[in-house]
Amino acid sequence: MFRTLLAGSALVAAVTTIALCVPANNALAAAPEKLWEWSKAYGPECVFFDKKEGVLYVSNGNNDAMKKDGDGYISKHSLDGKVITEKWATGLNAPKGMDVVNGRLFVSDVDALVEIDLKDGSVVATHAAPDAKLLNDVAADSTGAVYVSDTMGNQIYRLADGKIESWLKGDTIAGPNGLLVDGDNLIVNSWGVLTGNGWETSVKGNVYSVSLAEKSIKPLTVKPVGNLDAMQPLGDGAYLLGDFWVGKILKFASDGSVSEVAALEQGTADFDYDPSTKTVFVPNMMKGTVTAYTIAP
Fold this sequence. Notes:
By secondary structure, this protein is an all-beta fold. The protein has a single domain, classed as Neuraminidase (6 Propeller), CATH 2.120.10.30. It is 0% helix and 53% strand. The strands form seven sheets. The chain has a five-stranded antiparallel sheet with strand order 1-2-27-26-25, with no helix packed on it. The radius of gyration is 17 Å and the shape is globular.
C-alpha cells in the first residue's frame, strides 16, 4: 500500500448511492451490500470514524505514500458519504492512520505525528519521530498516550507528555501496521517480512498482542495471514482485519482462527467500522475511492 499509487482514471460523481452486492470468494461469507461511494478521494489511506461527533475523516495524498510533497490533506464527511469540508486540514504530506485524543486528531505523516485541532482543522503541533522510515497507523491508550507504527522501520513509537520516542523495536513483529488498544494490550497486525524489493514480502504478516506495561509480545495467529493493514475491534478478542493486496476483509476470532468476511478489491486500505449499523468505511488507495458497505462479520 505504500509504493507510488495512481488514483486511477478521471473520477465522476462525488457520492453515488448504490444497492449492489460484491461477490465474496468464500461461500460462507455473505456478500457485502454497497451503500455509497465517494469517488473524488486522492490516494486515500485511512478512514477514521469519530463516534462522538458522528463524522468521518479521510486521509488523502498517498499517490506517492512516502513523498514529502505537501499535497496531503484530511477531508471531513457525514456518515452518508457527503463532503462536509473537502480540505478540512491541509499542509500535510502523505497522511495515514488517525486517532482522537482530548479534542485533537493525531495523524501519522511519513516521519512525523501531526496534531490537529478538531474545532477548526488547524495543525497545532508536529512531533518528528527520530529515525522513522514510514509512519503508518495510530492508536491511543486510556492515559492519552499515542502509539504509531513504523512499518518500514520495524518499530512502534509512543507520544506521551509531548515527547515522542521509539517504544518497541525489532524483527519479532515484521512490518508493524494496524494498531488498536484492547484493555492492557496493544494489538498489532503486520505487513510481513520485506524482501527489499518495494513492498514485496517473503513471509506475510500476522497478528500480535503487546503488553502495554511490559512490552512482552504474544503471537495471536498460528500462521501468516496476509499483507495486513486495517484492524478494528469486534469485542471478545475478535477483530476485523484488512489484507491490502488481495483486497479482503477478514475476521480474527479469539480462538486464533481467521475467516473471510468480504472480498473487495486490491488497494483496500485502513478502514473503520460502525458496529451499531455493521457498516465498514473502506478507502481504496488504488482507485481513489471511499466506499461504505454493510457486512456480516
